[in-house]
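Changelog excerpt

This revision adds worked examples to the README so contributors can see how folded entries look when concatenated. The first example is reproduced verbatim below.
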Amino acid sequence: MTDTYTLREVARMIARKGDEDDVRRVMRQIRHWTVCEALVPEGDVHTGTGVSRRYGADEVRIAALLLVLSKYGMTMTEFEYLREMLENVVESWRPGEEDLFWEVTWNEEAFRGKVSIGAPEMLTYQAKYRPGKRRKKKPADMPDWLWEHDPDNIAHAIAINATRIFERIPFPE
């Protein structure tokens, strides 16, 4: 059987401060993310009184990423669109290999995400091609994925070192 963790255990693993107030705040967030289906527990979401929801290790990692994103002001409405991207980040991570970066950009209309190994690529190119210069055609050295992303129309961009976040999670032995 795969290891699973209770709501409180997950909150303790990912809460940055670790004090009881912080753990309770993170527990509320995890409950909210679960009800909104940004996190998927093992078994039923509505377990009933006295029965703890349990989360697998990948869901703990997704919760850690959601916690980081929430610090940047992302709301549940935005998280709804991110589930597939979050799963991709967790599946792409290989412990002990080069750092895995998850870059997220968004505006009022769309989200884009990219997984980069070793260094963030999207933000590097965005800086190079300076937003605000409307282009009719793609520069020869601009990657196709960036052109499709519409670098001139980005409102927000962050790069998260997923490796560092995942390595900080103190899974019990």
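The second example, added in the same revision:
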Amino acid sequence: MAPHGKCKPESAVDGTGRRNAPTAALLAACFTCLADVAAVAAAQGVHRTLGQTPAWAFIGRNDATVHYEDQVDTVDSINACDLPERAKVTVLDGIGHNNVEQPILGLSGLGQGVPEYDLYDQSIYDWLLQHSRQ
């Protein structure tokens, strides 16, 4: 993530167990310079500072901490803003709050996802690297 006070066109990835405070703080301070954001089991409200930043959210269907429906609602609210790139949400079946990072960051979840949402059809790393900010 971009260091505080020295905003660079980087990507933000945050995961479970931190209540997404680092991501929310980074977005609030640097949303105009982030190339993209990948949120893993993110709390609600992160979307308020996204601006034009591409976003892909990941959540486990069995997450009892952040219910997957709330994550879907957050992504729907982002997409209601009619941004240049549609925000994505991948819901992984059989996954809970504390074990959603491994299938995403370890790439073992590629090709998975509940069909009514976005499949995890591209490496998160490739997706993050395809975006840039001038």
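Reviewer comment on example two: The chain has a mean pLDDT of 75. The domain at 11-129 is CATH 3.40.50.1820 (Rossmann fold).
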